[in-house]
Design a protein that fits this description.
Number of helices: 12
Structural class: mainly alpha
Strand content: under 5%
Distance between the termini: 35 Å
Number of domains: 2
Order of helices and strands: HHHHHHHHHHHH
Helix content: 55-70%
CATH class of the largest domain: Mainly Alpha
């Protein structure tokens, strides 16, 4: 089993990433003895339309700027009452994921959401596997799934960010370079700002650690400082970014 980007950030900076799960990997409720990553290779033979509709509804909710808390509570109630209903689990999971992406004082604990998604009756469709990737989204075992998702929607910024994180831990220089290129292009497009600077900083930190290149640490510090300049101080990632900067600065000073 490959190391995740979250685990490497912990090694390099002593702080977890924005998408880091509370455990390393997870086992589905429906296949406790099977390969826990088998779902990443499944064929999309199910009906995706209800999940695509639910996804669009949740995205419109967050785009409207209203308080999503009451909606998430209602979605959670439905998910808890109907644990085998994949659509109820999906709606709660997607809304929870979107909530984690905006400035927030408390980091998300995504393992309960992962368990809920894994334990429901699997719909075997694109949008369901996409949210599972986005919520866990840094394990090397998910690379093939990320590539399949991007083959359908090459402009999916959220999946591209996860894909970049996965590439960054492959220990292959061509993958490291591609990871930086992908996230840099997202930064330049402004599609996922300011969170993209946080992710870019993590990727540079990981690449610098794996390739033993101090210049990548410098780039990581620049990206994290940019993130801090654009983000409310109460967001939990700010403390993680500041800590990462301190650690990398210490590493750079030790190199001199």
């Amino acid at each position: 089993m490959g190391i995740s980007a979250a685990a490497l950030v912990l090694i390099v900076c002593g702080t977890a990433s924005a998408n880091a799960p509370s455990v390393s990997g997870y086992t589905t409720g429906e296949n406790v003895t099977a390969d826990p990553w088998a779902w990443t290779n499944e064929s999309w033979t199910g009906n995706d339309k209800p999940f695509a509709t639910a996804r669009q509804s949740v995205e419109r909710l967050f785009q409207s700027g209203v308080d999503a808390g009451p909606f998430i509570s209602r979605y959670y109630g439905l998910a808890k009452a109907n644990p085998s209903n994949a659509l109820d689990q999906f709606r709660w999971a997607y809304a929870t994921y979107m909530q984690w992406r905006i400035p927030h004082p408390i980091p998300g604990d995504n393992f309960p959401v992962l368990q809920a998604l894994a334990s429901a009756t699997q719909p075997h469709c694109y949008d369901y596997d996409r949210i599972r990737l986005l919520i866990y989204g840094e394990a090397a075992e998910e690379r093939g799934l990320a590539e399949r998702l991007l083959s359908i929607d090459p402009k999916d910024v959220l999946v591209k960010t996860v894909y970049a994180a996965i590439l960054s831990v492959s220990k292959q220089k061509q993958d490291d370079d591609k990871a930086v290129q992908i996230e840099t292009s997202i930064v330049q497009s402004g599609q996922d700002s300011p969170r993209c600077y946080y992710v870019l900083g993590q990727i540079y930190a990981i690449v610098g650690y794996l390739q033993q290149d101090p210049s990548d640490y410098t780039q990581a510090i620049v990206a994290e400082n940019r993130f801090l300049s654009l983000t409310p101080a109460y967001d939990w990632r700010c403390a993680a970014a500041r800590h990462c900067i301190q650690v990398l600065q210490s590493r750079l000073e030790a190199e001199q």
